[in-house]
Amino acid sequence: MKTTDPGPLLRVRNLTVTFTERRSTPWRRPGAVTAVNDIDLDIEPGGTLGLVGESGSGKSTTARAVLRLVRPSGGSIEAAGFEVGSFGRRVPIAYRRAVQAVFQDPLGSLDPTKVIGDIVAEPLGIHFGLRGRERDKRVAELLDQVGLASHHGGRYPYELSGGQRQRVNIARALAVEPKLIILDEPVSALDVSVQSQVVNLLEDVQERTGVAYLFVAHDLAVVRHASDRIAVMYRSRIVEEGPADRICERPAHPYTEALLAAVPDPDPARQRLQRERRRELRAAAPAAGPRPATGCPFAARCPHRMPVCAETFPGWTPVPDGGRVACHLFGGEGTARPSDTHPDYQETSR
Amino acid sequence: MLRMVVLRLLAMIPLVFLVATGVFFLGQLSDVDPAENIVGPNATEEQVAAVRAELGLDRPALEQYADWLSGAVRGDLGESLYTKADVTTSLTQALPITLSLTFGGLLVGLALGVPSGIWSALRAGRAGDRAVSLLATVGQAVPGFWLGLLLIIAFAIRLPWFPAVGYVPPGESLTGWLHCLVLPSVSLGLIAAAAISRQTRSSMIGVLQQEYVRTALSKGLSKRRVVVKHALKNAAVPVVTVVSFQVTTLLGGSIVIERLFAMPGLGALAINAVVRRDPDVIQGIVVLTVIVIVLVNVLLDLSYAWLNPKVRSL
Amino acid sequence: MSEVKVPAAAVSGRSGSRLLSRLVQQRATLFWAAVVLLVVLAALLSPLLSPHDPLKGNIREGLLGPSADHWLGTDKLGRDVLSRLLYGARVALLAGLEAVGIAALIGIPLGLLVGYLGGWPDRIAMRIVEGVMSVPFLVLAIALISVLGPGLTKSMAVVGVVYAMTLLRLTRGQALAAREELYVDGVRVAGAGDRRILFRHILPNITPPLIVQVTLMIAGAIIAEATLSFLGLGVQAGQASWGSMLSDAQASIRESFFLALPPGLAILLTVLAFNQVGDGLRDLFAREAKGGSLGVNPVHHESGSGQPPPPGLVAADPLLRVRDLTVSFPQPGAGRVTVVQGVSLDVAKGEILGLVGESGSGKSVTAMSLLGLVPDPGRVAASAVELDGRELTGLSFEELRKVRGGAIGVVFQEPIASLNPAYTVGDQVAEVLREHEGLSRAQARARVVELFEQVHIPEPDKRIRDYPHQFSGGMAQRVMIAMALACRPRLLVADEPTTALDVTVQGQVLDLLLELRAETGMSILLITHDLGVVADVADRVAVMYAGQIVEGGPTEDVFRRPAHPYTEGLLASLPRNVRRAGRLPSIPGVVPPPSAWPVGCHFADRCPYARPQCLETPVELSARGDDRATRCVRAGELTLAGVGDVPAAGEPLPPAAGRPVVKADPPLISTRIEKRP
C-alpha cells in the first residue's frame, strides 16, 4: 500500500450525455434528450458505489458512458488513470483491461454462437495472447472461481440457467484482472434465490481481488447489500449521494425517501409501515404537474415543492452523517423549508 | 396527413431524377450503336456517320442528356429512333394495358392470399395449414409465364372460354376488356397470392402470440372478433409491405405476361426497344414505372398510418 | 481460435451432431435436398445422360409424342426434348450460381460494412439500393441488358447485381440489428476490435438467415433465367434452356401442348426444391419452434383423489375452488411434461390470495389455466374449478368466454404490450362492456369514463381517445385494471401486475387494488414472484415450487414462521432494506426443469434439511395447525426461520405478531415514522 492517497479509481465530473432522437421523418428536426445531466461520481479502489434509480433515470447510460459505449457530450471521466473523454473511435486495449462490465441480460450479453469456454477465453487471447494449454488452464480456473464446473465450458449459453450465465459474464470480466467492473443491473433478471448467490459471488470476488464496482440497479435493497456508498439518480440527475446505510436509513432527498417507502419488505409488519408511509408521501405530493424544463426534475412530484424548485437545480449541501444532497430544502438563501420534516437536518441548512 | 402525402410526392422527384440519369448514362456505355442497326449491316462508315448525325447521336453525352431532360420536364420524353413514334404517346397508350394487368393480378393475389393466409394461421401445424402452405410454396415456385401457358392451353384452347391472345380496350367493350384480362390476371395473381398468403400466415401467427391477443381473449371475446378485430389489423402491417413489393413484381411480371398474351403494353414496347436499343423508349419506360411504383407506395404508406397509430401521431 | 481443452471435442461433436440429428428429423428437407442433388447430377452428367444431341434434330421428326427413342418426344425442329431438358438443367444451375455468386460477393460484404459502420456510408448505400429496388426487377434487368446486349452470361450478371441489392439490404439490416445486441457490447468491453467483432461475432450470428436467403435466391435466379430466355434475352436462339424451350412450346402450342409440360415441370420442381431446402434450413437454424394458433384450452374434467386439501389452502366461504389442477405440455422426445401438478386451493370471498413462486414454478400457468388461456398444445385438467358454486370444468369455449371478462377479470404483467396498439384504450375497455353487457356505444363510453375515474386516471374523458403507446406503464396498468373491472367481476386474476413497473409506481398500483377490493368486495388471485408485494397486500399466501404448492396459510404466519424449507430459503435470500450482515443467505442450485422433477420432494436436492426419505415417495401436502399446509416430510420436526428472525447487525428484531407495530421498529426510512405514537 502506498502511503500517499492514490486518488479515486473512477472520477466522473459534470458528465452529460445527450441523445439525438432518431428522426421519425426526414423533414423533422431531430430532438435531443438529455439522459445524463451534469453528474459527479467517485469510486475508491476496492470500493463499491451503488447507482440507483428508476427506469429512464440515466443510470445505465452513465454506466455505458464510463465503458465508452456511448459518447459523452460533456464533462470528464477519469478511470484507472485514463481520460475517457480523450478516446477516439478506438478505445485503448489497456482501458478495456482495467475496466470491465457485467450487463443485465445474462443471455443477451453472450454470443449465442460460441461455447462458454470460448467466451471466457476470448479476452485472454486479446489481452495476454494466451494460447492453447495455458489458456485452457486459465479458463478452467476462472470457471472454478465463479462456481462453474469445467464441463460447462463446452455448453452454449442457452443451455445454462440464468444464474450460471451471469457467472459466465463475471468470469469473462474477471479474466483480464480489471480494477473496476461496471455492474449494470447484474441481478435484476434473476430469480430471488439465485440473485443472492450472484451478489455473494460478487462480494467474494471483491474480497479476493480488490476490484472496485459501480453497481447500477433499480432495487435499493440489493444495492444497499452490495455497496459502501450509494448515489441516487432521478431523471438524469444525481439528487443524493452518501454512505449506503445513511442513505437507506436517513434519506435527505424527498425522492430518496419516496423510493425507500416503495421498497417492499417481506415482513408484513414492516410492510404495513411502508405502505402507510408511501400513502402519506403520495397524499402530500401535489397533483402531478408538468415536469419543469429547468430546475429540479422531482419538483413535479415533490411533497415539499417550492417555487424555486421549478427554476433552478439546487446545489449540493453536505449531510451530517456523510454524503450530500441536492435539494432546495437544505441549501441556499431565502429558501423556506417545511418545519415538520427532516428535523435531523435542521442544522445542515444553516 | 396531407402534408405527408405532399412531402412524399416531392421526395419522389430526386428518386425519379436519379434513376433516369442512371439509366441514361449507363446507356452511353453500351457498345450497341442504334445507327448501325438502322442502316443495316452492309452500310459504309459514312452512311452510319450520317445517320448518327441526323439522329443527334454524335453530340456529347451531356448535351444529349440536357436535351432529353429539358424535354422530359415538359412531358416530352423524346421519340423512338426507329419508328419515330412519340414516346409520351406510346407510353400513354401502353400504360393502361400494363396497369390493368398489374391491378388485375393484385386483385387476384389479395383475394386469394389474405384469406388463405389467415385460415392457415388459425390452424397452424394442422393438415389444412400444411395443405395451404404447400400450395403457397408450389405457387412461389411456378414461373408466371408457364402458368399462363398452361392456362391458355386449358381455358383458351381446350375449353375455349377465354381469348388466348389480344387486348380489348374498356372503351371498346367493357365485357371484352374484363374477359381478356382474366387469364393474364390469374397467371400473375396466383404467384402474388402465394407470397401474400405466406406473409399473412406468418405475421398472423406472430400476432396471435402477442399479449394483447391474450388480453382480448381474457375479455371473453369470441374467436372471430379476436381474429378480425384485434389480430388482423396488427398483422396487416407486414402484409402491406409484401403487397408493395408485389406491386413492383407484378408490374415487372406483366411484361412477360403481355408478351405471352400478345398485348401491346409496356412489355412489348420494352422488349422491342431493348433488342434494337432505342434509348428514349427505354428511358421513358423506366421513368414511368418508377413513378407508378412510387405513387403506389405513397398509397400504401397512407394505409400504414391507418393501421399503426404510432405513425399517425408523428 | 482453438477451443478450450476439456470441452473441445465435445463442443464440435455436440453442436454438429445436434444440428444433424435435427436435420434427420426434417425428412422433407432431406427429400428436397435429394431433389436438388438430382438436378445437379443431371446438369453435370448431361453429356453422358442425353440420348440425343440437344441442338440438332430432324425436322421431319418434329413434334413427336413420347416414344422409346424420344422419351419426352421432340420439338418442332425434331430435337429430343429429354436431351434439351438435361442440358437445360446445366444452363439453369450455372445461371443461378452466377447470379447468386455475384450477388453474394457484392451484397454481403458491403451490407456487413455499411450496417456496422452506419452513418453516411450507410445512408448513401441505402439511397442507391432504394433507387435500384424501386424499379421492377424485370424492367431494370431489361434496361441493363439493353446496355450490355443480350446473352446468358451478361443477363445473369445483371440479375446478380440486382440481387446484390436485396442481399445488401438484408445483410445490412441483420448487421444493424446484431450491432445493437448486448453481446456485441460484451465482446467490445472484453477488448475486441471492430474487425474481430464483425467477423468473429456478428458474421456467425447472421450467417443462418443469409444462407437461407441465398438458397431462396438461387431459386429466384433460375426463374429469372427462364424468364429472360423465354423473352429471348437469355441464351442464344436454339440453345437449350428451360425458358427457351417454353418459348418454342408457345410457338407450337396449338399443335402440341405436351411440349409445355417438361420444361415447366423441371423449373417448378427445381425451384420448389431450392425453396423447400431454404425453408428447411430456416427451421433448422431457428432456436425454438414457432407455432401456436389462438391459444385456448378449456379445463377438462378429470376425477381426482377426492381428498380435500389441508387447511391453509381451503376457505370456509370460497369464491373460487380449485381441485387437482394439472397442466401438461407435449415435449418432443419426452411425451407429455407436467408443469403444474395437482394444485388445489380456495380463494375466499373478498380475499386476496397471493400465489408466489419463482420462474418455472407454474404459478402463471395455474392462473391462466383457470381461464382457459393456456397456449395451444397444453392440456388442462382438474376435478373441480368452481366459481361461486358454478363448475367451470368441461365448459366449452363459448360457455367459458362468458365468464372471462365477466365474472373473472384479468390483469397481466406488461400493461403496454397487453393493450392492442391499433385501437384507442377507450375502445378496448368499451369492448368488454358491449360484449358482456350489451351496452350501446354511448352507454359504454360513459361507463368507461367512470371506470377511468375509479382507477384514478386523470382527465378520463380525454384519455379514452388515446392509444396505448401514449401511456406510461403505470397509467397503462390502470387502463388494464379498468378493463378487468368493467363488468364488476367477482374475481380478479392479477398476473404479476406490478413487476414491469417502477418501484414507486408499483406501490400506487397495489394501493389501487386494495382500494378497489374494499369498494367492490371482489376477490383477487395475485400471482407474483415478489414476497414484498405478497406481504403488502395478500391475506393468504400459497407458495409454489416446481409445479406444486409447497406451503399455504395466512401471509403473516407463513412469513414469520415458514413451515417449508423453500419458503424459509426464499425469505432469507431476499435482499431487504436492513443493515448488511455479511453474506446474503441463498438457496444453492437451480429450479429443476419439469422434465427432471424427482418422484419425491421437488426441492430435496437444494434443501439443507433433506434426508434420504425425502426422495423416496411423492410428498403430500399435510396440515400444520388449523390454518396451515406444508409439503414437507420433516415438517413436524423442523423449526424454520421467518422474516422476524433476520439476524441483522445493530438492528432490533421487529415486533412479533400481535404486538402493536410502533416505536420498537428500527429506524425504517424517515424520522417522521419514528415520531409516530
UniProtKB/TrEMBL annotation, chain A:
<feature type="region of interest" description="Disordered">
    <location>
        <begin position="331"/>
        <end position="350"/>
    </location>
</feature>
<dbReference type="InterPro" id="IPR003593">
    <property type="entry name" value="AAA+_ATPase"/>
</dbReference>
<keyword id="KW-0067">ATP-binding</keyword>
<dbReference type="InterPro" id="IPR050319">
    <property type="entry name" value="ABC_transp_ATP-bind"/>
</dbReference>
<comment type="similarity">
    <text>Belongs to the ABC transporter superfamily.</text>
</comment>
<dbReference type="Pfam" id="PF08352">
    <property type="entry name" value="oligo_HPY"/>
</dbReference>
<dbReference type="InterPro" id="IPR027417">
    <property type="entry name" value="P-loop_NTPase"/>
</dbReference>
<dbReference type="GO" id="GO:0055085">
    <property type="term" value="P:transmembrane transport"/>
</dbReference>
<feature type="domain" description="ABC transporter">
    <location>
        <begin position="10"/>
        <end position="260"/>
    </location>
</feature>
<dbReference type="InterPro" id="IPR003439">
    <property type="entry name" value="ABC_transporter-like_ATP-bd"/>
</dbReference>
<dbReference type="InterPro" id="IPR017871">
    <property type="entry name" value="ABC_transporter-like_CS"/>
</dbReference>
<feature type="region of interest" description="Disordered">
    <location>
        <begin position="266"/>
        <end position="292"/>
    </location>
</feature>
<protein>
    <submittedName>
        <fullName>Oligopeptide transport system ATP-binding protein</fullName>
    </submittedName>
</protein>
<dbReference type="GO" id="GO:0015833">
    <property type="term" value="P:peptide transport"/>
</dbReference>
<dbReference type="GO" id="GO:0016887">
    <property type="term" value="F:ATP hydrolysis activity"/>
</dbReference>
UniProtKB/TrEMBL annotation, chain B:
<feature type="transmembrane region" description="Helical">
    <location>
        <begin position="7"/>
        <end position="27"/>
    </location>
</feature>
<feature type="transmembrane region" description="Helical">
    <location>
        <begin position="97"/>
        <end position="122"/>
    </location>
</feature>
<dbReference type="GO" id="GO:0005886">
    <property type="term" value="C:plasma membrane"/>
</dbReference>
<dbReference type="GO" id="GO:0071916">
    <property type="term" value="F:dipeptide transmembrane transporter activity"/>
</dbReference>
<feature type="domain" description="ABC transmembrane type-1">
    <location>
        <begin position="95"/>
        <end position="304"/>
    </location>
</feature>
<keyword id="KW-0813">Transport</keyword>
<feature type="transmembrane region" description="Helical">
    <location>
        <begin position="235"/>
        <end position="261"/>
    </location>
</feature>
<feature type="transmembrane region" description="Helical">
    <location>
        <begin position="134"/>
        <end position="156"/>
    </location>
</feature>
<dbReference type="InterPro" id="IPR000515">
    <property type="entry name" value="MetI-like"/>
</dbReference>
<feature type="transmembrane region" description="Helical">
    <location>
        <begin position="281"/>
        <end position="307"/>
    </location>
</feature>
<dbReference type="InterPro" id="IPR035906">
    <property type="entry name" value="MetI-like_sf"/>
</dbReference>
<dbReference type="Pfam" id="PF19300">
    <property type="entry name" value="BPD_transp_1_N"/>
</dbReference>
<comment type="similarity">
    <text>Belongs to the binding-protein-dependent transport system permease family.</text>
</comment>
<protein>
    <submittedName>
        <fullName>Peptide/nickel transport system permease protein</fullName>
    </submittedName>
</protein>
<keyword id="KW-1133">Transmembrane helix</keyword>
UniProtKB/TrEMBL annotation, chain C:
<protein>
    <submittedName>
        <fullName>Peptide/nickel transport system permease protein</fullName>
    </submittedName>
</protein>
<keyword id="KW-0547">Nucleotide-binding</keyword>
<feature type="domain" description="ABC transporter">
    <location>
        <begin position="320"/>
        <end position="571"/>
    </location>
</feature>
<dbReference type="InterPro" id="IPR003593">
    <property type="entry name" value="AAA+_ATPase"/>
</dbReference>
<dbReference type="Pfam" id="PF00005">
    <property type="entry name" value="ABC_tran"/>
</dbReference>
<dbReference type="InterPro" id="IPR050388">
    <property type="entry name" value="ABC_Ni/Peptide_Import"/>
</dbReference>
<dbReference type="Pfam" id="PF08352">
    <property type="entry name" value="oligo_HPY"/>
</dbReference>
<feature type="transmembrane region" description="Helical">
    <location>
        <begin position="256"/>
        <end position="274"/>
    </location>
</feature>
<dbReference type="InterPro" id="IPR003439">
    <property type="entry name" value="ABC_transporter-like_ATP-bd"/>
</dbReference>
<dbReference type="InterPro" id="IPR013563">
    <property type="entry name" value="Oligopep_ABC_C"/>
</dbReference>
<feature type="domain" description="ABC transmembrane type-1">
    <location>
        <begin position="89"/>
        <end position="278"/>
    </location>
</feature>
<feature type="transmembrane region" description="Helical">
    <location>
        <begin position="28"/>
        <end position="49"/>
    </location>
</feature>
<dbReference type="Pfam" id="PF00528">
    <property type="entry name" value="BPD_transp_1"/>
</dbReference>
<feature type="transmembrane region" description="Helical">
    <location>
        <begin position="128"/>
        <end position="148"/>
    </location>
</feature>
<dbReference type="GO" id="GO:0005524">
    <property type="term" value="F:ATP binding"/>
</dbReference>
